[in-house]
Amino acid sequence: MKMNAYVAGVGMTRFGKYLDRGLKSLGQEAISAALTDAGLDKSDIQAAYMGNGGAAVVTGQVLVPGQCVLRGMGIGEIPVVNVENACATSATAFQQAAAMVSAGAYDVVLVCGTEKLYSEDKLATFSVFQGAVDTEDMEGVKRRLAENARATGSTADIEGAGSTRSMFMDIYASMARTHMQTYGSTQRHFAMVSAKNSFHGSLNPKAQYQDELSVEDVLAARPVVDPLTLPMCSPIGDGAAAVVLVSERKARQLGLGRMVRVLSSVLASGHDDPGKPDAPEMTVNQVYAEAGLGPDELSVVELHDASAPAEVIYYELLGLCAKGESVRLIEDGETRLGGRLPVNPSGGLLRKGHPIGASGAGQIVELVTQLRGEAGARQVDGARLALAENGGGFIGNDVAAIVISMLQKV
C-alpha cells in the first residue's frame, strides 16, 4: 500500500556470533539505540511489531519472544505483535507497522527484529532453514533440486542439503546454474559480487565480516555446492535491528531534519500461476507504481543476497537492468560504491551477516543511514531514494514471502 510514515530512529547491534547473549540482550541494545536516535522515550511507544525467525528451534523461546524482550526493558501494556515470516520476518514487521501508522492507528510504533542462530547443535540451525520450505513436500523439493542438477549438467550432491549445509544453498545453487545456462553468467561473476560486498562490508563497523576478499580469494575458497564457494553464501548470525516509525503529524512535531519517509512498502507471497510474473517482479512493480517512481531514479539498494547469485538474479527481477544484462552491471562496476547504483553498501547479507529475524530491519537501518548522509566511508554520494528487498522461504518455484520498500530523503 502507499505509505505515509516516517523513520524517526534506527539502531542495531553488530551482527555476529554471540553464544553468551540472548534475544533480550541483543534486542534491547538495538531498541535503546533506536529510541535514542529518535529522541523518544520508551513511554512514547504505542505499539510494537517484533520479529524473530528461529528462536523456537534454537533457544526454545516460543509464542512470546517480543514481549520477553520488551518487558525486560520495562515496556508493557502496549499491543505487541510477534511476526515470523522466514527471512522476511522483520521486513514484514516493518511493512505492517508502516501500514498501521499510515492508516492513522498510531503515532509512534517500534519495529524490532532479533535473532539467535548460532548453536552448539548445527543440525538445529540447519533445521530452521529446512523448515522454510513445504516440509510435507520434502521429497518433492529434493526431486526438483536433483532434476535441476541433471538439466544443468551438475554433479551436486543433493543428499547433503539440510544435513551438511543449509538447504537454501542448494536452492540458490540451482537458480545460479539455471541463470548460467540461460544468460551466460559464470562462477566468476558470482565471485565478483562476493568481492564487491566484502569491500563494502570492510567499511561497515556493524558488519559480521570486515575483511576484504579478492575475486581470486572467493574462487579459491572451500566449495559448498556447485557453483557456490563459501564466500558466495551468507553466514548465519545473531543480532538485532530496530526502527522507530512515526506519523507525519509526529514527524513535524519532532522536526523533519533527519526524517526518512516511507513511500511504499509491499508484502506479498509467491504463487503457482505460470502465466503471471513471479512474486519479486509483481511486488516491485507495485512499489514503483505506488511511489510514482522507477528504478532509474534509485540512488541505493539493499537486496537479499543470501547467496551471490541471488544478487545477480535480483538485479533483473527488480528492474535494475534487462534480463540477461546483470553480468554487465557487475563487470562495469555499476553496483559498487562509486558506481551508478550501489547495491548492498552495508556489505549485504554476504558480509554484514544474515540473522534471519533481524535481516530485513537491518536493511532499513542501512538505507536510513545512507539517506541521512551518515554512512561515513561507505556513503553513497547524494543518496535521495532507496529500495529494500527482503525475501524469505521457498515453495514450488517461487519465494514464499517478500517485502519491498521504497524510502525517500525528506
UniProtKB/TrEMBL annotation:
GO terms for molecular function: acetyl-CoA C-acyltransferase activity. Residues 282-403 form the Thiolase C-terminal domain. Coiled coil: none annotated. Residues 7-248 form the Thiolase N-terminal domain. PANTHER family: ACETYL-COA C-ACETYLTRANSFERASE, NON-SPECIFIC LIPID-TRANSFER PROTEIN-LIKE 2. This is Thiolase.
